[in-house]
Amino acid sequence: MDIRAIIVDDEEPAREEIKSLLLKFPEVKVLGEFEDALSAFNFVSENSIDVIFLDINLSGISGMKLANEIKEFKNFPLIVFVTAYSEYAVDAFDVGAVDYILKPIDEGRFFKTVLKIKNVLSSKERRKEDFVVCSLDEELTLVRLSEITYFFTENGKLYVKKGKEELPVKGLNLQGAEERFSPVGFFRINKEYLINISKISKIIPWFKGKYMIEMDNGDKLPLSPHRQKEFREIFKF
């Protein structure tokens, strides 16, 4: 996942230092650097940005004022304040800053901030995919991923099993579901089933070294021998 960043600081050496630190994270793309708040505001108004590294004491409009303006955007970026002044920390978190770094920048501290940014953005990305659209009584309904026990196919159609309830899925096949939801806790156990790992209640040894997986709704599903190695690695057995 690429992370689109800009740097706003009225001192060029400070911008260069942040840019140099970000070079160690190839997924972070610095799309622009600005020495004043107005130029940064105009850029963010017209471009999609994930994170701003923002100084507070800028000439003209302050970084805090800029953060307050940007917060009004529908999809406002994450804000990391990078400043020499500790007294604005409370105000910074009041405007929703994801972190507050003091100058001179400690490299280890900065790297922790980047990891934090990656985790926050990853979490936001997952929330976009928290639901599956299903048909129910001639209406469309949203089913939370956390409610789904497993996906399965029948006669070429994809369904979700939600407890004991079966619902046809709209606009998705099993391959697509696997690509979308494997990164968030689902596992393809054979050609027909994609299960929610958190809903597994038992792993039952079967004949000839095979396994049967019991879900928390009582359904027992066969684990393909071709998927055994990866499955066993997840649970370390």
**Which structural category do the helix and sheet elements fall into?**
alpha/beta
- Provide the CATH topology of the largest domain: Rossmann fold
Mean pLDDT across the residues is: 90
Helix content, binned percent: 25-40%
Strand content: 25-35%
Structure summary, number of beta strands: 15
Q: How many DSSP H or I helices?
A: 7
Choose one word for the global shape.
elongated
Report the major sheet. 5 strands, parallel
What CATH architecture of the largest domain would you give?
Answer: 3-Layer(aba) Sandwich
Physical arrangement of strands within the biggest beta sheet: 2-1-3-4-5
What's the number of domains?
A: 2
Cα distance spanning the termini: 31 Å
Uncertain stretches: none
H and E string = EHEHEHEHEHEEEEEHEEEEEH
What is the multimeric organization of the chains shown? single chain
Short description:
The chain is of the alpha/beta class. Helices cover 31% and strands 32% of the residues.
Explain this structure.
By secondary structure, this protein is an alpha/beta fold. The chain folds into two domains: 3-128, Rossmann fold, CATH 3.40.50.2300; 131-235, LytTr DNA-binding domain (OB fold (Dihydrolipoamide Acetyltransferase, E2P)). Helices cover 31% and strands 32% of the residues. The strands form four sheets. It has a five-stranded parallel beta sheet, sandwiched between helices. A hairpin with a 2-residue loop joins strand 9 (157-162) and strand 10 (165-168). The radius of gyration is 24 Å and the shape is elongated. It starts with a strand and ends with a helix. The mean pLDDT is 90.
